[in-house]
Amino acid sequence: MPIDPDAAIGADLGDTTFAWTSSDVLLYHLALGAGSRPTDERELRYAYEADLRVLPTFATVAPNLRIFEPPSVTFPGIDIDLARVVHGTQEVVLDRPIPVEGKAVGRTRIVDVLDKGKAAVIQQETRVTDPAGDPLWTARSSIFARGEGGFGGRRGASDRVELPDREPDAVVDTPTLPQQALLYRLCGDRNPLHADPQFARAAGFDVPILHGLCTYGIVAKAVTDALLDADVTRIRSWSAKFAGIVLPGEPLRTRVWREGERLLVTTTAPDRDDAPVLSDAVLTTA
Questions:
Q1: Which of 40, 41, 114, 215 lies in the 20 to 30 Å Cα band around 191?
Q2: Which residue among 24, 87, 115, 189 is the active-site one?
Q3: How far apart are CA 183 and CA 180, in angstroms?
């Protein structure tokens, strides 16, 4: 059905109650590639419960850990074929470090629906609290729905991040695993785009691609390890735009510029002529 922005914008998608354990956190970190140096004390902060710390990007999977069906894109005023959808942007803003184990309640609403002509962009916000009502984090995301534009909505403003006119302060190369998407989908995102070659071809890709949120987590970890001494408690927020796909098994190259309490980040795929992967990315620190 066509998108109805009047019905969609501001729609309350209700509450979701969820919980997680240290095993969930460990699985998530391993699905990002943590543990590749199993005797490194900093690496064991991600992969061993003795001094476990939670990478803030865990917030993107925590509500969906027990969901085993492919996601649907059906909301008030919106009903879109999953094969037309890719992740557009993601942001997590922390109120405090995420506990190793916990229970929480998330309330989600549709913030806006933008008309990009040949595509629609659907923006959502989820505010998460503990059972007592104290805030934990806010997650904001957008999805890009190809072929769903032209419904007469507003286009929206640019949110481009200007990079300094100088060489980056750090360049970090990070591998990915050929089976990375198959591991990551165990964290709750069962979209067949990331596992089923036939579905991927129908969606316009030669092979299954890596989850955008997996890339989002991998890069957050890489930047944290390289510039924050692997101290995840220093992260206050992490936002990024998904500028291109990642093929499981290809390396990533991340460039970082320091700008006060902000780290400005871009990530590319060097084996594909530095094809853009993440852009307009900002990690803010304490």
A1: 114
A2: 189
A3: 5
- Second-level CATH architecture of 5-285: Roll (3.10)
Asked if 70 and 192 count as a contact pair (C-beta separation under 8 A), the reply is yes
- The verdict on whether 211 is a catalytic residue reads no
Active site residue 87: no
What the block records as the tokens of 167 is 């060489």
Q: How confident is the model at residue 135 (pLDDT cuts 50, 70, 90)?
A: very high
State pTM to two decimals. 0.92
The one-letter code for the residue type at 156 is: G
Residue 66's contacts (CB-CB under 8 Å, 6 or more residues apart) are 18, 188
99-127 residue pLDDT tens:
999 999 999 999 999 988 888 899 999 99
In angstroms, the CA 14 to CA 64 distance is 15
Query: Closest Cα to residue 161, out of 112, 208, 91?
Result: 91
